[in-house]
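Recap quiz, item 2
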Amino acid sequence: MAENESLLLTLIDRHQSALLDGWLDCMTRSPRSGALRRDGETREQAKRFLEQLRRSVQYQQSADIYAQDWAPMRELLEEVSRARVTQGFTPTETATFVFSLKEPLFQLLRREVDSADRLADEIWIATRLLDALGLYTIECFAKTREELIGRQQQELLELSTPVVELWEGILALPLIGTLDSARTQIVMESLLESIVESGAEIAIIDITGVPTVDTLVAQHLIKTISAARLMGADCILSGIRPQIAQTIVHLGLELNVVSKATMADALALALRRSGRSIENRAAPKPRQGE
Amino acid sequence: MNVEADESMPVRSSDDVVRARQAVRAKAVAAGFSLVDQTKIITAASEIARNTVDYGGGGTLRIEVLRNGQRRGVRLTFKDQGPGIADISLAMKDGFTSGNGLGLGLSGAKRLVNEFEITSAPGQGTEIVLARWR
Amino acid sequence: MSEIPILRIGDCLLVSIQVDMHDRLAMALQDDLTQRIVQDRARGVMIDISALEIVDSFIGRMLNNIAAMSRVLDAVTVVVGMRPAVAITLVELGLTLTGVRTALNVDKGLAMIRNIIDRGEQYDERRGG
């Protein structure tokens, strides 16, 4: 194995810049290369790849790219993949980075190797290696994409549960969308943290934006209300649509909380409870002669 | 799935219950659990540990940190050679406020974790395995 | 004598639970509290659990017991300082604190006790948990 591997080593040593040119040329020509241009970044990465390939081929003890000594190469490919994900490339476009090295490499092998048998062996070795590296690029791509989606999901969950301080000591939590158990956890954490920060003793939970209230959603609401109570805050439910009211009664759900049809009503109640009242200012007296 | 850490300890006294909580906390923190997730697994551990001391005549706790791909979890195995539980489904009923003996904490602990398995029979002791994943 | 100090603020008693509780300590605390309520003619009992990272059914039972005994002695019990993670876990655990009122901190707890006593609401069973 080692003896054959060293042919690759020799080729890269002697023809590095020709290989590089041929490779970049192939990349831009391939129909699935998308926006892979001969820009500085791609050229730089290709150069590093060849150098790393040379080093790995020279020092490695096995052709297994998951072995310890191939770690630097794997890191390079992770870097290339990660950059491509954030730039919006497809997995194929990203893998093309590796696979398009085959064309110039095989051309070179054709020129340098005489016997047909030897040529077939060399191409087989090179193909196996580049296939493994290209597939690894796709794996990294998939992993990075999953992480990105996971982070975005988390941000979305947090963004969609804002807690607003309507008045001193009165919080409002407008819920938009369905309330499943993952969401409920975030809602509870948000609400309770706001209670601690603001010292609020009343929290208005508005469910205008919650499409349906069934037994499960009711359980989640009850949990949230109980948790708020343990932190010393009473809850008022608002935004109960007529259909929701019917469903609640129909399912026999016991919410055990004061509920109001609109947030305005809930706010009025909250203000009363906290000892405040709102009155209209007296109309200004008309001036003499007007 | 890999086991990244593994620790065993006795659970025979009130002090052991305290120690068990601390050990579970350390593992939960090591597994990168959020504060709420930590609180849940430690509370579940406290419930079962107390049961083990009060009704199981004392036993052991094994704490493992697991890794399954990107996910990490904490698995707790409580074992005792006590009298065992005759009717598991009865024991799992919510009986907290009525002040029942056996069964307190079992159903509650189950709600705090993702995986819960209980093996027990009269005269054969009890083994409870709980796991919570990030 | 329990290792947990019981402070007096006006006609209220304040207990701060800082250590990991076990059976003996819990029993001692309940004994001490009942004695002090009578001795000091306390109208309110405040239990500060802000140092507790965990509240399990054992602590829950203790809190319920204290509330029950206080009620018999005509005192109001308020638990203050529960941490958010603990509240979320208690709710998931399904543990209800019966007859125990809750407030965010000591100040609000005192105000609550004042309010309840002044309005004669200490027999209101609906509140709590």
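The longest helix of chain B spans residues 35-54.
Chain B touches chain C at residues 14-15, 17-18, 21, 25, 35-36, 38-40, 42-43, 46-47, 50, 94, 96-97, 104-105, 107-109, 111-112 (CB under 8 Å).
End of item.
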